[in-house]
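quick one before i forget lol
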Amino acid sequence: MKGMRYNHIMPRSSIVRILSQKIKTAFSPRIFLGFMMVLFLTACGQSEPGPDIFSLPTNYSVGKKPAELKARDMNHDGFPDILVCNSGSDTLSYFEAIGDGTFKQPFTMNTGREPVALEVGDFDGDGIPDIAISNYGDGEISIVLGQKDGVFRQKASVKVGRLPIAVVAGDFNNDEKLDLAVTLRFDKLVILLGVGDGSFKTGEIYKASGTPAYMTVGDFNNDKNLDIAVAFNAVRVNFIRVFYGNGDGTLKNPVKVKGGKQSSFITQYDINNDGRNDLLTSSTMNDVIKLFLNTGQGFTSLEDAAAEKGPQYIVPGDFTGDRIPDLAIANRRDASVSILQGRGDGTFIFPHFNYPVGASPRAMIGEDFNDDGLTDLALLLYDSQRLEIILRKITSPLQIDS
């Protein structure tokens, strides 16, 4: 079995059935039973220990119930800093990067009630990154403006409605001023149009039933207008929706794409190297990763990909050194990060590799924190209130298929 090539999204039961039929016709009953025992034990393996591609993690304290993090160069020194919103302590932690993969002790600022998400962008046009914070308990988005001296100033808060979840930025009306899109817990997608001075006015509000969760923004149909793809995590939901932009700050009626059952996270990446960004979702409750290939005329979903227990945040990138996109996945109920090795065509090598981390990993991002050209990981550990920095090692490309 070792070295056999097959895609890990193919059901293991199908693999067992196909191989057993071939073996049964070639060998005696006793030998056949022996082969089946080996085949069963091999097919039952979900993953295997990963190669040594990560250094030991460095840990930093964050606030209570850390919900999300972003990595951006906030002070223009060329190194990505880290922002963490702490929903249990109503604070935002700012970790200034030193440039070698380590960070200074955090600067902490107060936020509204229960900050669960944040976005970074230049909202006032001064060339300095600003922050938008989704305050779940207040029903508002807080705007924090960056200053030349490296500190932050609270600008204003915008009421958006009950229980805002995710917030993303993009120029939806093509006026060269950043706008915001916000999902509300039950059934709404709200557009906030940027004025250009750090303030926003409410734009259109769209029906988005099915408990909208995370979003990702991009020009998915190559019409020069930004679109929004939304994941939905209601129990019986088995779809995502893509809201294609008109370019004037409004969105077309959403296109429903089947798949991604009860998804909690969505992101984008060109997984099959065709020049178009594809969509990836995770279902924390159903232990599934779903890939939606961008055909240029819409999206088509592939078979569910195997995952560990409670997959949530997905970080695409080349983690094996072969210049083919892979996936790093934070497994919420499994205290691990999985690496799914890509083939370059939208499929992945089986088995995937697992790396143990602290208990209850939540949000995860990928960035080059030590300026060595490799994608590192930053991970939030919910229960222990820790930020974990996991640096890549410089290694030769892995032999991933024989």
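fyi DSSP finds two helices and 30 strands in the chain.
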